[in-house]
């Protein structure tokens, strides 16, 4: 009986010893790796000082130009504002919504009215984007003074005025269509 009791102990001792050896090797690798990283970072840090100074100078030059490099890219992702073509800083959500209105309304106006189902789809998309735009941005102080806001509002008012006078199923005249498209072009140029 004592012989069989010794065997499990010797196996567990052997397993324990092999685990200790593996743990010792891992610690040796980790500590030597950490030492290597420390030594290389110190030596590279001393050699990289002139390069780092040059990079900082370039970063300052880029900031003067308005581009922050990688930092600028990361910042732009989290920044709620975006520069327009005209160089103004406006809320990204406004720009996205306004661009969507311009795109869908233009598509709707340029759609062939003879294909009724396709015309209805584009008109419904334009109507929905206008509703979202107005519910989010109508009268907002951040954008109400912008030329793009005024142009989109003028286009929407012209559209509403035409349909209120002529009825919901009337075919739009070329004059009204050209006026609205001109307002959309003005808005797009400002976005």
Automatic annotation (TrEMBL):
GO terms for cellular component: photosystem II. Coiled coil: none annotated. InterPro entries: PSII_Psb27 (IPR025585), PSII_Psb27_sf (IPR038450). It comes from the Eukaryota. One of its GO terms (biological process) is photosystem II repair. Gene3D superfamilies: Photosystem II Pbs27. HAMAP family: PSII_Psb27 (MF_01481). This is Uncharacterized protein. The lineage of its organism: Eukaryota, Viridiplantae, Streptophyta, Embryophyta, Tracheophyta.
């Amino acid at each position: 009986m004592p012989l069989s009791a010794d065997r499990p102990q010797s196996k567990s001792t052997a397993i324990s010893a092999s685990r200790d050896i593996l743990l010792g090797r891992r610690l040796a690798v980790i500590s030597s790796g950490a030492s290597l990283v420390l030594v290389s970072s110190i030596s590279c840090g001393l050699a990289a000082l002139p390069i780092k100074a040059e990079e900082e100078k370039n970063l300052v030059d880029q900031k003067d130009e308005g581009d922050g490099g990688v930092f600028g890219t990361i910042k732009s992702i989290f920044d709620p504002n975006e520069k327009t073509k005209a160089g103004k800083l406006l809320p990204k959500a406004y720009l996205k919504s306004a661009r969507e209105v311009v795109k869908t309304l233009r598509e709707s106006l340029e759609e062939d009215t003879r294909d009724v189902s396709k015309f209805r789809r584009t008109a419904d998309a334009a109507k929905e984007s206008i509703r979202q735009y107005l519910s989010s941005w109508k009268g907002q102080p951040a954008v109400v003074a912008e030329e793009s806001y005024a142009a989109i509002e003028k286009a929407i008012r012209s559209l509403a005025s035409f349909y209120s006078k002529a009825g919901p199923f009337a075919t739009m005249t070329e004059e009204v269509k050209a006026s609205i498209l001109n307002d959309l072009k003005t808005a797009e140029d400002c976005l």
